Amino acid sequence: MSMAASSVSLEKMIQVSFRDKDLLQQALTHRSAVRGRGTLSHNERLEFLGDAVLELVATEYLFQYREKTEGELTSWRAALVKGEHLASVAREIKLGDYIHMSRGEEASGGREKESTLANALEALIGAMFLDQGYEVAHQFCDRFILVRLKGLLAQGKDKDEKSVFQERAQEQTGITPHYQVLSDSGPDHDKTFVCAVFIGTEQVAQGEGNSKQRAEQEAAKAGLKVKGWK
Predict the structure, then answer these.
(1) Position 3 in a domain
(2) Would you say 171 and 177 are in contact if contact means Cβ atoms under 8 Å apart?
């Protein structure tokens, strides 16, 4: 297992001092670090919890925008909790420096991998919730995640590429696009999918991601550029 930076400076950065330091260490432990070491726990269960906490925090925050429709608020929330955005927040607090992972994972660029960073941030939120409750987790999300909403909207990050591509394809061709998985590779916990988007029999573009959904989004994003529809 590789050496990660001391988590003390991370606690100072996020202004949260954990009562249960083991919980913090679990949030910072990648699956690769515990392979074959049955006594240790990785962060995937905390990630599952943190994902739910973040979604509730974001929903509560967005509910104040009374003039917005459900569809608009759903798109805004998707922009806030998207892996790309969470990874950006994780880089801001240098979270990658503190993650425990195998030497092999680190050598392959694990500390900068978008999925690893986003997952660790969600696990950190989950650990905060268990250690100090909803309010502390909420304050963290306010300071580091929700504060970026205006910037995300200015960049058009609330626009779902698959939805936009479908609208444009139907407008221009009258055909609803479909997606196909071309390949998947890697271990179960860290798969890479390659998907293609088709209009009829025409393969327009390909995309790659750590889930089918992400690969489809990337294919749609590439398809918009290929067609000049964005």
Answers:
(1) no
(2) no
The domain that holds 188 is classified in CATH as: 3.30.160.20
* Adjacency order of strands within the sheet including 202-209: 178-185, 192-199, 202-209
Catalytic residue numbers read 51, 122
205/111 same-domain check: no
pLDDT confidence tier of residue 193, bands split at 50, 70 and 90: very high
Element housing 185 (H / E)? strand 178-185
Both 139 and 165 in one domain: the answer is: no
pTM comes to 0.75
Considering the domain architecture, whether residues 125 and 206 belong to the same structural domain is answered as no
pLDDT of residue 40: 63
Per-residue pLDDT of 77-89, as tens digits, reads 989 998 889 999 9
Which stretches within the chain are classed as H helix?
8-14, 21-27, 44-62, 70-81, 83-92, 103-107, 114-132, 134-144, 149-154, 161-173, 212-227
